[in-house]
């Protein structure tokens, strides 16, 4: 696979590969939280075709969760976090029915957005 535009810059090369580690750390934290609440948790394969990173089930309830671990920003409000994930590079315009987006910021704050604005 050819290098991306960001990987061709010194800053991009220095950061290369770190995003996956950050994402995995966020997913691990979410899975831990859900297991404490009694959910059975599974992750998507390495190259998922679906929307969610994590699927959690408890009885008949199923939650599909997309995790964003944005450690380069601090969000003081949920509105600021929502604006960030709706813009580039995330472009999450619509959360599918039954879906959730969990956003973690640099200070470890968590913001949860669900389909239908719940």
From TrEMBL:
Annotated Basic residues bias: 8-20
Region (Disordered): 1-27
Designated name of the protein: PD(D/E)XK endonuclease domain-containing protein
Source organism of the structure: Methanoculleus frigidifontis
Domain of life the protein comes from: Archaea
